[in-house]
Amino acid sequence: MEQKWTKLWLAYPERMRQENLEIVTKIHASESCQGDRLAVSAVRELTAGITAMGGKLPEVIYETVCEQCGQTGEGIYLVLAENANIGAEGYRLNGTGRSAVIVAKDTRGLLYGAFALLRHMSMGETVCEPSETVVPVMPLRMLNHWDNMDGSIERGYSGQSFFFVQNEIVINDRTGDYIRYMASVGINGIVINNVNVRGRANELITAELLPKLQTLSCMMQDYGIRLFLSVNFAAPIRIGGLESADPLDPAAIGWWKSKIDEIYRFVPELGGFLIKADSEGNHGPYAYGRDHAQGANMLADLLREHGGIVIWRCFVYNAGQDWRDKKTDRAKAAYEHFVKLDGQFRENVILQVKNGPMDFQIREPISPLFGAMKKTNLMLEVQVAQEYTGHQIDLCYLIPLYKEVLDFQTYADGEATVEEVVSGAKYGNRLCGMAAVTNTGDDENWTGHDLAAANTYGYGRLCMDPSLSAETIAREWIRQTIGHDAEVERVILDMLLRSREIYENYTCPLGIGWMVTPATHYGPSVNGYEYDHWGTYHRADHLGIGVDRTSAGTGYTMQYNEPNASMYEHRETCPEELLLFFHRVLYTEKLKSGKTLIQHIYDTHFLGVEQVKEMIAAWKTIADKVPERMNENVSERLDRQLYIAREWCDQVNSFFWRISGIPDEQGRTLY
Ligand code: GCV
Fold first, then answer.
1. What does the alpha-carbon distance between residue 414 and residue 428 come to, in Å, rounded to a whole number?
2. Whose CA is nearest to atom 7 of ligand 1?
3. Contact of 274 with 144, CB cutoff 8 Å
4. What's the gap in Å between 393 CA and the centre of ligand 1?
5. Whose C-alpha lies nearest to ligand 1, atom 13?
6. Distance of alpha carbon 291 from alpha carbon 308, whole angstroms
7. Is the CB of residue 618 less than 8 Å from the CB of residue 550?
8. Which of 18, 345, 558, 631 is least crowded, fewest Cβ atoms below 10 Å from its Cβ?
9. Quick check: CB of 154 below 6 Å from ligand 1?
């Protein structure tokens, strides 16, 4: 039966270089690899990849091999050397003329090395070329699915869930492929269900559904991935029949203890729980006058004996703000809820912090929590799903945004970038890393927009090695997914690398965010959130726009360490792309470019539309060089992007013209 889903970057069309064909006929693997589930996966992947790329089914020989064997022998060597001088999960890959040697001290490293070799081959290199030592930088490299058990996906833009259909867990060949694809870019933890645990999802931790989770967990374990579950803090009430989920109530604790023991009897390798508490209607410790540390620690104590962890989200805010209130600031919420608890969380608790203080807008400052929680395990949460960045209809390559976040200097205890904090480099902790709200669904191409898969791929690659540039990652993805045509690569690379700026140009100016259609979060609605209770305001009037978050305003700037606090505090030193996030600015004030604010808004919006037209024209030049299905998909998405870009441009520009009365200097049509 024909496969109904694409193979993403593991497509391996026949493109093996001639010199490789002669070499990759044998795989020599350490004897100790035999029977090891990860090593077996490494061999299976190499065998399948080589065969698909045009080689013959390679012979697999388990024998005594060492790093030096490759000097004289021929073929691929998988060397498991417990004393190798390589970090955990890492590998060394060397081409030595007639061989490629992968050395690791654990079999997960061998698996990553095998995928790396396949990547190089698929990109058109010879097996003798690669020479690299890679140790994953982020200890935890996680994906968060917001999949519901009825099959829907919260903020999903690529079809329905492939984990859940009609309130049942689905495990099939597609699940297996998904696991392979994610492991190939280094993912080592997957939360399969939505952080908003509703309906049937409450029952995931019951004896009825746990056996299937065990099957899924086993499949993931074969590829070095641990299964995690989102659980409802109110589970003792919802499924336990108790009256309270108070984290200090012995009855609730007792219920959780036997529940967690039961879960681990079925799924001994479960990674642990992801929890959204006291936010957006979810139950949490506040209901009992307890704090987040008390809530998280109660579960952590019970999970510890099973090797499990608690990942506790910091996306906590009061969603009931009065828009007239100019002192309360949602941006300050996470810091206010959590910094006072620094040092109080157990060792097996990680706090998961969204990249910005608001909610995955196209431009936000970096959350000040990364510079403030020095005695707590932290994890960075980014969104690969394009909730506010175009729903995988508009092209928006997000790796540059993630890199900005990782590179941000927090000045915690002197100096520490976000990368250093969440990789554990700064404080020497291992329970930390990155999590991404993923963008996959059961669409044939997995991600709605074919090119949105570059974000899925890139996220994993970045977790493995944040020093990779956005360009390198994009090139890798293009070569493996689409092919080696230089012109195709040039055009798509250019589209990807410009796409975030283009999206920003025609949407929300200078960090203000939130001009999206309420609820759906697609397309423009300048005032959609302005008089609502979500704490998301632009405060535009006839004179100017922006939120004063300085010490004279909401005081948000004070949550940063110096010199960041001062940098944001002053209009002159505030990075211009974030100007309206931090300052209220008059339309007539000049920006660094010499343009007035209002003219900047007009110009960037008109420009954004032109840039989408340029992308369409560029795509047309390569349309017949990419697979037909991909061309149809991307062409259709680009047309829809142009439509919505025009809507954005005309609505935003007309809004500002009407409210300010200031005409466009270039006399373009405003409505
Ligand atoms: C899963 C935003 C989204 C919600 C999401 C929430 C969260 O508010 O719009 O859909 O809920 O973030 O991250 O928990």
1. 16
2. 315
3. yes
4. 19
5. 315
6. 21
7. no
8. 18
9. yes
* Secondary structure (DSSP) of 450-475: GGGHHHHHHHHHHHH-TTS-HHHHHH
CA-based torsion, 114, 120, 123, 127: positive or negative: negative
Inform me whether the pLDDT recorded for 343 exceeds 90. yes
Q: Which of 161, 315, 355 to mutate to test the pocket of ligand 1 (most atoms within 8 A of CB)?
A: 315
Residue type, 507: T
- 330 Cβ below 6 A of ligand 1: no
3-state secondary structure of 168: strand
Single pTM value for the model = 0.98
The answer, yes or no, to whether any atom of ligand 1 lies below 6 A from the CB of 115, is no
**CA-to-CA distance for 87 and 306, rounded, in angstroms?**
25
Q: How far is the CA of 5 from the centre of ligand 1 (A)?
A: 28
For residue 459, give both structure tokens.
């996220």
Which amino acid is located at 297 in the chain?
Answer: N
pLDDT for res 507? 98
| Phi, then psi, of 361 in degrees rounded to 5 | -75, 165
- Contact status, residue 236 vs residue 256, Cβ threshold 8 Å: yes
SS3 of residue 323 by DSSP: coil
CA 9 to chain centre: 17
Do β-strands 26-30 and 349-354 pair in parallel, antiparallel, or remain unpaired? unpaired
C-alpha 647/C-alpha 329 separation (Å) is 29
Q: For residues 119 and 492, what is the distance between their CA atoms, to the nearest angstrom? A: 19
Residue 422 CB neighbour total at 10 angstroms:
32
Ligand 1 atom closest to the CA of 194, numbered from 1: 1
Average pLDDT for 341-349: 98
Check pocket membership of 198 for ligand 1, CB cut-off 6 A.
no
Distance CA 254, CA 66 (A): 52
Which residues participate in catalysis according to the annotation?
280, 359, 387
User: Tokens 């007239």 appear where?
Assistant: 324
Each residue of 461-483: pLDDT tens digit? 999 999 999 999 999 999 999 99
φ/ψ of 52, rounded to 5, equals: -65, -35
Residue type, 572: E
CB atoms within 10 A of CB 639: 12
User: C-alpha angle with apex 345: 340 to 351, nearest 5 degrees?
Assistant: 85
**Counting beta carbons within 10 angstroms of the beta carbon of residue 241, is it exposed (0 to 12), middle (13 to 18) or buried (19 or more)?**
exposed
Say if residue 70's pLDDT is above 90.
no
Tell me the per-residue pLDDT of 258-269, one tens digit each, with 9 for 90 and over: 999 999 999 999
Which residue has the least CA distance to atom 8 on ligand 1? 359
28's CB contacts (< 8 A; 6+ apart) are 61, 63, 65, 69, 73, 75, 76, 77, 78
Name the residue with higher pLDDT: 15 or 472.
472
Residue 195, ligand 1, Cβ within 6 A: yes
Query: Average pLDDT in the 138-157 region?
Result: 98
C-alpha dihedral (660, 662, 666, 669), degrees to nearest 10? 60
**Pocket flag, ligand 1, residue 514 (CB < 6 Å):** no
Q: Would you place residue 18 in the very low, low, confident or very high pLDDT band (cuts 50, 70, 90)?
A: confident
From residue 428, how far is each of 304, 343, 371, 418, 420 by CA, in Å? 20, 15, 15, 14, 10
Q: Ligand 1 pocket: which of 155, 197, 230, 330 to mutate (most atoms <8 Å of CB)?
A: 155
* Pairwise CA distance, residues 425 & 460, whole Å: 19
- What is the C-alpha radius of gyration for the chain, rounded to an integer number of angstroms? 26
d(CA 317, CA 335): 10
User: What average pLDDT score do residues 115-136 get?
Assistant: 93
The CA 502 to ligand 1 mean position distance, Å, reads 25
